[in-house]
Amino acid sequence: MFCCGRGFGRKERGKKQPTWRVFSLKELHAATNNFNYDNKLGEGGFGSVYWGQLWDGSQIAVKRLKVWSNKADMEFAVEVEILARVRHKNLLSLRGYCAEGQERLIVYDYMPNLSLLSHLHGQHSAECLLDWNRRMNIAIGSAEGIAYLHHHATPHIIHRDIKASNVLVDSDFQAQVADFGFAKLIPDGATHVTTRVKGTLGYLAPEYAMLGKASESCDVYSFGILLLELASGKKPIEKLSSTMKRTVTDWALPLACERKFDELADPKLNGKYAEDELKRVVFVALLCAHSRPERRPTMLEVVELLKGESKEKLAQLENDELFKTSQAPEYNDGTSAAEESSDFISEEKDEKQDSK
Ligand SMILES: Nc1ncnc2c1ncn2[C@@H]1O[C@H](COP(=O)(O)OP(=O)(O)OP(=O)(O)O)[C@@H](O)[C@H]1O
């Protein structure tokens, strides 16, 4: 089904040198000290991820499928297929894969600074390594990676699981968008695909959560939530009491309308941020997370707005109706008072493509 390859479209801007190969199970056992518990970096829906070192000294992260099943094998094939065809400076590169017997493993470059989640809310959060410049670079870099998937990859790709644990940070604190296992390839001419709802609550666009309509604008919504998280240090859903929850958008919109940016900024920044940039990030984020998909910008527009390239478009953004008075009730996606026992959705629906 697969062979070692060099991807395609090598001439396109922003791409890295594509090279990947098939690894033997023996080589991966040697690299990870037999998948030693001490080498374990984390665990996701697919299985565990281990740190390893190859004979040439290079460091790798090996994702090992938990339990073999036809469904898991499909997800494995989707991730390998997608990773093999995309190469961009802000998308996590595939080093290779291994499929021997019932073992399925994916090999990536190791990201020494782990995920955005670990910096914002996890093991790195106390170190406060994410100053404002780094946050801005991560915001722009991850937007460029997603814009590449939406607008330059052929066929176009919807990620479907944009969230803080899927944005990894390399040694230069540049963003690497990861975890393409849920991604969907969009055939030419299709506006969206109706599909199984998969993703993480708090990041799910309302039309996707309710109707299973996946399109690029669902990723834009999730990216908006991620931007708010990056700027404010708040989680997508905050627990206010045992029965009440508040989404980060419900919290941020009234503050943005009142231009209270000092209250929106992550307290860990200690007031050290560029106010015009923070303002930009918050306005872009809230427009991305609009409940009506047609009001959301494209990822190409998001990149342009975050970079502040067009003063005219920034002025338009700031004067958007959304920021005139608090629109919280209309804007609300309905999750604020929801009672969820799990923050992960996996609901089967018929898969059908919808072209217009
Ligand atoms: N290339 C990598 N370099 C460093 N750490 C990694 C790498 N890939 C994954 N990790 C770590 O392993 C953890 C598990 O990753 P994985 O993608 O399997 O799951 P997840 O994104 O946390 O959850 P889910 O599968 O539900 O999306 C991540 O949170 C991350 O910290």
How does this structure look, described?
InterPro entries: Kinase-like_dom_sf, Prot_kinase_dom, Protein_kinase_ATP_BS, Ser-Thr/Tyr_kinase_cat_dom, Ser/Thr_kinase_AS. Residues 35-314 form the Protein kinase domain. ATP binds at residue 63. Belongs to the protein kinase superfamily. This protein has 356 residues and is an alpha+beta fold. The chain has two domains: 21-109, Phosphorylase Kinase, domain 1 (2-Layer Sandwich), CATH 3.30.200.20; 114-323, Transferase(Phosphotransferase), domain 1 (Orthogonal Bundle). The protein is 34% helix and 20% strand. Strand 3 and strand 4 (59-65) form a beta hairpin. Helix 6 packs antiparallel against helix 9 and helix 7 crosses helix 9 (275-288). The radius of gyration is 20 Å and the shape is globular.
